[in-house]
Every structure is written in structure tokens, then in C-alpha cells.
Amino acid sequence: MPLMSPPSRVTIRHTRPAFLATALAVFVVVMLAVYSAAVTPAYAATLLSQGKPATASSTENAGTPASAAVDGNAGTRWSSQFSDPQWIQVDLGASASISQVVLTWEAAYARSFQVQVSANATSWTSVYSTTTGTGGTQTLNVTGTGRYVRVYGTVRATPYGYSLWEFAVYGTSTGTPPTDPPGSFWGDTASIPAAQNVVMVKMLNRTNGKYPDSQVYWSYNGQVHSIAEQPYFDMPVNSAGRMYFYLGSPNSQYYDFIEFTVGASVFNGNTTRVDAFGIKLAMRLHAHDGYDVSVGEDQTTFAEDRAVTFQKFVNEVPAEFKPLAQVQAPYRIIAPGSHAGFRAGGANANYFSAYASSVGVSAATSDIFGCAASLANNPGMCSALNRHVAHLPQSQWSTPSLYYQAAPANYYSKFWHDHAINRLSYGFPYDDYASQSSFISHGNPQWLLVAVGW
Ligand SMILES: [Ca+2]
């Protein structure tokens, strides 16, 4: 299929008109007058941290997990090991304007600590710092923006560790939850060796403990290794290459692949759902100029069990598509063009017929899904039919917000877009039309991470 240019990244600047700033200043003065005696911020703030994923540098024991500090239960707590420094962080799930942090310390409190915020859990900005912490309940009014909030303790007040009954973060959510996995998902990238060939590929076991590294295999051009044996591959120049991944054994039925063409100083490649879904895959390409883009299944999909993903597919697609997640379960969810129900003689062989005829296309339903026969050289029309925009003016065929709004459409493809990083996926052969595919390409590449999930 044709290789499109890489997706562009757009930076949106939020500017505030002068009259609004004036109005806001008046509002703030009035609110300060009304609430000058109040401790809590003069604007609505929501408890953002409760029940959100929390992690910590350590725990004292299994009974004091990080999650106990954000569970809203005053009788449960996080406690660290008895050393400095230690930290606990919470992932708010989306970027937020943070106005207040309330720390309810157990007897083991911090003398010196910072409250820090971060957009990516990698680089942190301090919004509060003290060397004379008092313990007890500390209500800290802060100003910061971030998705992650961390309490970073450097000096303990007692010989014990750091312990919080509750760690509550208040503010206003400003973003929609990103689909891009956080930095922690991708692990350490600083230690990736430099490539001698074109790009260093690092394989990541993200099966959530389902398989050990010794049972997650990758295969390229006759080489087969487990991640435990060899997590890196120094990718040479090649064309139309595929790297396969297997779970459990090197010939397991749980497998999938990525595809790529690698030039002397460029990586072009993609994950693909064109044929089927086998196992969850995501990849992140980083180049020497700072380009850094991820594609593949999204964070939620990686986090959930495989059985949940199969059931989610059945729940989210119309009746004609449900068998795609059933006929080869638990191994594969197959593309609709491969299913007997949509082929000649099948119950849904005419699924697309009337719609295709209405726009002057005569093609078998399975050929529409597969962009084959008369559609093999017509990417625009094939993608428009799959996305149910073929009846609209061609100028609207490149408007993603119009896609998949009604049947008939390729609901298999829709599902993979709905659960992909930045909604980009290769759901059918010409899904690169209007740059909707998971294809990435960049010159002077440095490393490529491939996450293999369950
Ligand atoms: Ca608690």
C-alpha cells in the first residue's frame, strides 16, 4: 500500500483576549473580597486523585501499597521503606490545573519534601517545598499544571519511612485523557545502545505478567530470540520487512507482526490490523532530531486482559461483525473480508451492495473490505466506503469526524481506531488515505520500541 507522509504534530496555543483578562481580574478581586477569610481556593476545585493509579518508590510491606493513599479511606495508608529519598505519585488520567494538595501524614512523616507536578512522569516541576514539615494534616495551596503529582520526600522526621493516610489532589481537569501511554510504559530509553546499522529496535514485554521475558519471542529474517535472551536488534537496511512476535513459544498461535521498510537513514513502518488482531502491539519511533511518535493499541487496551478486549469488540460492533471476535477466539479477531459471512454465499454477502451501488460502485462486500478487485486502484473510494462517507462530497472524505457515523461501514476498523493511540490504526488496506493509519516515518532514526501485549 502507498506510504503517506508522517502525521504532523500541531501545537495549539491558548491565548486570552485582553478584555477577558480584565474581566477575570475584576472577578478575582470580588472573589477575594468574598472569600478572603476562607482557607480553600475561591474557585471550584474537584478531588482528582481518588481511586487513580498510584505508584511509589517503595512500600514497607504488602499491607501499605501506594494505592492506599488515594483510596479515600482514612484507615488505610501507604508506607515506604525506612530510607531517603522516597516518593509517591498519582496519575490523574489527564492534564489538570492543580490548586491544592492535602497530605494526611501518619506518625512517620516528612521533614523535608517537595510536591511536584509533571506532564509525563519523567520531568518534574516543584510547586511546594519545605524543610520544616509539620506532619499531621497539611493543606497546601499550590499552582501547577500536570497529569502526574508526586510527593518527593528527602528527609524523614522519624527513623521510620514516609507514610500517608491520604494524598489528595484538588484542581480542575483541563484535558481529555490521552491515549498515548505514559513514559513509564516505555521504560528506560537512556540505556538503549547506539545502532551500528540504521535503528536500534528494543522489544518490550508488556503482557502484564502473563508471560515472562523468556516466553516473549521476536523473529526477523530467520532469527528467533526471546526478549530475555536478546531485547535488542540492530536493524539493517531492508525492504518490505516484517518482524513477528510470539507469546509462549516460538510457534505459538498467539502472534502478530509489524511491517517496515528501512532505508540507509530512514525508518518507515506500521502496526497493522488489516488481516487480523493477534496480540496487542504498539511502537514508538525516536529520531536524533527529537521526533518521537507512538502508534498502536492504546494504553487502556494494553492494561486490560485479552478476554476483556475480545468482549469489548463483541459489545461495540453491530451483529454482523460480532463473529469476527468469535470464530478464531481466543487467538484472533479477524478482518471482515476474511469472514465467510461477508463472502459469496454468506449471510452478509450483500452488506455493502446497496450503499456501494448508490455511489456507482459495483463490488463484492469482501472486496470493499479488502480494497480488492475494482477498488484495488481506488484508495479514496475504498476508504470512503469503509468509513461510510462515500455518499458525501469528495472534499469531505478526509474529515475524520465524519467517519463511521452510520451503517454500512467497516466496524472492525472503527473498533481499532477507537482503541488506538491518537485513533490511528491500519484497519483496512487503504486506511492510510487521509493519514488515518498507524504508519510512521522519519529520517535519521535513533531507536524504535516495540511493546508486545496480551
Ligand atoms: Ca487511605
Explain the overall architecture.
15% of the residues lie in helices and 33% in strands. The chain has 454 residues and is an alpha+beta fold. The protein folds into 2 domains: 42-173, Galactose-binding domain-like (Jelly Rolls); 179-454, Thaumatin. The strands form 4 sheets. Strands 1, 2, 3, 4, 5, 6, 7 and 8 form an 8-stranded antiparallel β-sheet that branches. Strand 5 and strand 6 (125-130) form a beta hairpin. The relative contact order is 0.12. The chain binds calcium ion (CA).
The portion of residues forming beta strands comes to 25-35%
Number of domains: 2
Query: Average pLDDT value?
Result: 89
* Assembly annotation: single chain
Could you state the order of secondary-structure elements as H and E? Answer: HEEEEEEEEHEEEEEEEEEEHHEHHHHEE
Uncertain regions spanning at least 5 consecutive residues = 1-43
| Cα-based radius of gyration, to the nearest Å | 26 Å
CATH topology annotation of the largest domain: Thaumatin
- The shape, in one word, is elongated
What's the total helix number? 8
Distance between the termini: 28 Å
Class computed from helices, strands and strand pairing: alpha+beta
Q: Specify the biggest β-sheet.
A: 8 strands, antiparallel
Architecture (CATH level 2) name of the largest domain:
Sandwich
Which ligands does the model contain, each kind named once? calcium ion
Protein name: Beta-1,3-glucanase family protein
Organism: Sphaerisporangium corydalis
Pfam family, one: F5_F8_type_C
